[in-house]
Structures are given as structure tokens and as C-alpha cells.
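User: Hi! I'm working on a homework problem where we have to compare a predicted structure to a textbook description. Could you give me the structure for the chain below?
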Amino acid sequence: MPSFKSIVLALCGLLTTQVVAVDKTRNPQLVAQLKAAATQMDRLALLPGQSDWLFDFNAQDIYTFSPGSVVNANAATFPAVIGNGLTMAMLNLGPCSMLPPHFHPRASNYVVAVQGTTNTYFIAENGARVVSETLTPGKMTIFPAASIHTMYNTGSSFDRFPERQCAVAHLVFSVGCTNAQLVSALSSEDAGTHNIANGLFGLPLDLVNVALGGTDDVNVTARSIPGVGTGSISGTAACLARCKAQGKMV
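Assistant: Happy to help. Predicted C-alpha cells:
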């Protein structure tokens, strides 16, 4: 059975990318005013325009399926959420892509599949079992607050046929290399995201080496950790090779 250490290192990937998925507050003055407002009526007065209440996930700079992205509508990017206690996110996963193991320090996470097939995993705390689910369109799972979780686009899809056209079932599984998309709701306007590998290898490497058993060159491993990027990274070599052979990798 693979060790915990080997699993962690396998999930770390090979490429380093620029950190762009860390949300920057777009209008600090307005956010400060909204947080200081005494009443909901005061907050409404600070958001007088129709456009103040509309967030377009598709129009955001990091929206991509290559390899994927996490686009958040939260206190930093969409001030209208302030006082409403929620972040909404669009999760895009290209074929074989994954969200690396991470946790949200200030929120529980509800995830609904819209497109494709996504395998999810979480561990709530030390001693807890691994909970795994397979999400297809219309299915949901929950990641409890601060639980370590990850998700992976298997590259498969379910095709929906018109009613009465298929007497056995209206959902037919098909093997292919397709995008996956999910909608995520987090129970905080400032949920935060902490990627496990990036955080772990930001600590003194001699201590990290001891924690991982002291058998690998952690300096090499640290240099191979993918950056946060757009929130998603490429997945397993086997899946990537299968999709590339089908000519479905861009």
C-alpha cells in the first residue's frame, strides 16, 4: 500500500506556475465602508448601481480549463457579498486536471457538479477516515470546515438522452476526455484557501524532511511543488497520456 508520504508527493505534481489565484481586494475603501456599515440599509446605499449586484464568472481573468481554475465571488472580488455570509465559486477542471489537496480555514464547503465526472476526497482530522465520492451532474458533497480535501476530473462524462429515447436509463456513461465544472458554496465571505503542499514546503525543509520520514531530498521535492496558479493543476500521468492519445488535450 502506498505510504502517506508517497501519496502527498505524487499529488504535488511537476510544474511551477505563477501565483494568481490568491484573491486581491479590488475596492478596499468600499469593502471597509461595507464592513463598518451599521445596518443593511446602510450597505444597500453603498451599492446603488445594478452592476454592483452582478458577478460574471466567465469574465474573470483566471477563468480557464487549461488546466483549470477556481473563480471566487467573495468579499475581495464581489463586495455585495459582505454581510451575507457566503462565497460562491466556479470550479473549472480540464481533462485530467485536479484541485490539489487544500483546506479552507474559515468555512465549510458545499460542492455541486454541473458537468463531467469528478472524484472527491476529504479527511476531517487526525484519525478520521477518508471520505470519497464521485460527482456527476446534479450530485453534491460537503467538505467540513478546515478538512483537507482534493478533487480530480476523471476525464469521463455522462450524456443525458431525451426522455423516452432510452427505456433503461436517461444517463449513459461515456469514456472520454472532457471538462468538468462544479459550483462551490463556502460558509464565509472570506473562506481562505491553503494548499497543503505549498504550505508544508514553506516551512524549514530540515523539519519537513523529518516529518516525511527523512528519506527523500526535500530540496528537490520543494522545487517541484506546483504554484497556486489559477487554482488547478494537471493530474496523473496515466490520465494525461490517455487523453493525449485521443487528441483531446489542448
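For your comparison, note the following. Helices lie at 4-12, 28-36, 40-46, 196-200, 205-211, 218-224, 237-245. The longest strand covers residues 87-93. Good luck with the assignment!
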